[in-house]
Structures are given as C-alpha cells and as structure tokens.
Amino acid sequence: ASAALAADPTHADAALALALAELGHGADAVAAAVTACALAPTDPRAHAAHGAALIRAGHPADAAAAYARARDLAPDDPGAHYNCALAAEAGDQVDAAVAHYRAALARAPGHVPSLLNLSRVLVDARRFDEVAPVYQQLEAALPGNTMTPHLRAALRGDLTAAAPRAYVVDLFDALAPRFDDLMVGTLGYDGHRRLAALVTRLGAGRRFARALDLGCGSGLVAPLVRDHVDWLAGVDLAPRMIDAARARGLYEQLDVADVVEHLATVPPATLALITAADVLIYLGDLTPLFAAVARALAPAGWFALTVERSDDVDARLQATGRYAHSRAHLAALAAAHGLAVLAIEPLVVRREADLPVPGWVAVLARAG
Fold it and tell me: What is the distance between the alpha carbons of residues 40 and 10, in angstroms, rounded to a whole number?
C-alpha cells in the first residue's frame, strides 16, 4: 500500500489499505486515515478507519465524529452503528452507546457483537429490566451457547458452581484491547491496588521467592508486586489477555489455562505468594480453588484475594453474572483448608452506574 500510494498519491484504495494496515500505530494510523478520507470523502470505509485510529489513539470524541460520518454515508450498515456505539462507550456515554447498539440491531437483529456489548452495557448500568429481551436475541443468534443460560440464571439469582469457561474467554478476549482503560479509567477498578497494598503492608519488606498471579488478565497486579517477588508467573483463561500481560514484560512465565487446573500442575508447597484479584467473582463454589491453593502454597505462603461482597448468604450469583461471597464464608474456607486469616478488609472494587461495588480484600497464610 505504501509503494502504491507513493507511486500515485491520489490512489484512494491504496490510501485506505495503508490506513487499515497502520491501525494500532498511533499518529501514523491517524495520519494515514486522514489521507484516505481526503482522497475518498464519500467512502464510509475511510471514515470508519479514521474512527478506529482515533479510538486507539485515545481520542473518543473525535472518533465519534468520524464514525458518525461513516454512518451517515452508510446508514443501513449495522457495523457503522456498532462503531458509533464503541466510540460512545469509550467516551463514557452510556445512553448514546445503548441507542447506537439498538440502531445496529434494528438493521440486523442477529448482530452478535452488538448483542454482546449491549447486554454488558445494560448490566453495568444496572438496567436489568432491559436485559432479558437481549438475552433472548442472543440465544436465537447463538443457539446452544453456554453464555445465555448463565446470564439468565444470574437474572434469576440462581447459584451455580462457576461461570462457563467459554463465556469467560469470550468476554475477556473481546475486552482485552481496551481492558485497562475500561476497568481502571471508566469503572474505577481498584482491586489490584488494594490487594498489593495489603500484601505490602502486612509483609513489611518481605520478599517472596515464587509467586503466581491467578486470573492475571492484562497484568495489572504485576507492576505492583514485582519488586517484592523473585519469580512471577501468571495464568488466565483468555489468550488475548495473556498477550496483554506478556507485553508488560514482568512475568517469567504465562499460561493460558483454568486457574484450578493450572494449580494442579504446580509442585506442592512451592509458591510463597498466590494472588487472585477480581478472579473469584467468576467462581460460585470456591472449595476446589481453596484446596488447590492450599496444596500449592509453601510453608508460611500467602494467598491474597479480592471478592465482591455478600452480606446475607455465603455466596450468590448476581444479575451482573458475577459472584459475591461473604466475609464469614472466606474465613470458614480458610479454616477448612489450613489457612490463617491475616486480614479481611472492605473495599470498593469498582463503580457501576456511578454506584460503588463493595467487596473484600483478604490475605490468608499457610502455617510456617
């Protein structure tokens, strides 16, 4: 594309190809897209490429304008409305995002990306009364999937053992490119910081020989504990999240696997620290995890974790599709698996619909 454009600076298709090839390269991608728009001002693909470049460069308002131009040029294209929704989400404009996703679905009722994102946005905004019809559309579009039964169970409040593996993988692979911005920037997620701060405060300068970050995601915990560990590994179900964690360059080892199954491969009594920030929220039954952790911890090893908070029952599946657990339940599980409670403290995990999501952050210790 670069050679073709150099040979003919008015070659609109070459300019568009270059813009698409440059996506993810910051200012270069934006500049290439601007050129494509100038050479092909009525081509919605050029304006969509411009919007994508601006989104990735961190300019959601400008991206919204570019995507709106693409939509105006191709009003019947569900993808054009979907892109407008992404820009609205990036700009923290929930109502606009919902409207754009609905516009995409009006043109293509089975547009799976719009259905997935619309259901997530509605749940995060706690607009639960609007979610059930979206789940019905998802079930029609993806018959036999494991996600919609889980989400319907969540709406009913039925307690299940764990979120389906495919659901977790699909959710986080889709979120991986903008996970940090969404969680930390938009939702104010703070579990990783509170977990690391509690370990640091209780440890008082302690170093950990070998550590494992369960459900490591994009690696938010790693920079906060790296100075306190000699060797750090991470494990996560979602391959694209592992790719994001690898890009940090802070882990000696990274694996794509289920956390309980991975712990079973760890030599017994070898880990000085196991962390699990925002991971147990996808497990209803914590007994298998606690058993695997207790087996893998070295003498005097620590298990640091966060959960969302239940005050009336040991565990519940919330309408968000995430699980909440009680303080008493964590303490009972610890005792049952030979772990002492060093601390269980309240925290605000994140915010949803501008309301705090309460949780617990805990450090449990195996006997020395």
Answer: 9
- The whole-number average pLDDT for the span 185-211 is 95
Helix (H), strand (E) counts: the chain: 18, 9
Burial of 253 (0-12, 13-18, 19+ CB in 10 A): exposed
- The type of residue at 209 is A
pLDDT of residue 242: 98
What are the start-end ranges of the H helices in 125-251? 131-141, 147-156, 165-175, 179-180, 191-203, 222-225, 239-248
Over residues 265-294, the pLDDT tens digits come to 999 999 999 999 999 999 999 999 999 999
Q: How far apart are CA 44 and CA 87, in angstroms?
A: 16
> Is 316 in contact with 323 (CB distance < 8 Å)?
yes
Q: Which residues contact 185 (CB under 8 A, 6 or more apart)?
A: none
What is the pLDDT, as a whole number, of residue 230?
Answer: 98
- The CA dihedral of 132, 76, 88, 247, to the nearest 10 degrees, is 90
Mean pLDDT of 110-118: 93
For residue 13, pLDDT over 70 is answered with no
Residue 177, pLDDT > 90, answer no
| Percentage of residues of the chain with pLDDT beyond 70 | 93
> What are the tokens at 121?
């946005």
* Neighbouring C-beta atoms of residue 39, cutoff 10 Å: 18
Nearest alpha-carbon partner for 16 in 366, 6, 39, 7: 39
Q: What SS3 state is found at 51?
A: helix
**What sign results for the dihedral spanned by CA atoms 259, 260, 262, 266?**
positive
Contact between 198 and 363 (Cβ < 8 Å): yes
Cβ contact 77:107 at 8 Å: yes
User: CA angle, 279 as apex, 277 and 280 as ends, to 5°?
Assistant: 110
The amino acid occupying position 283 is: L
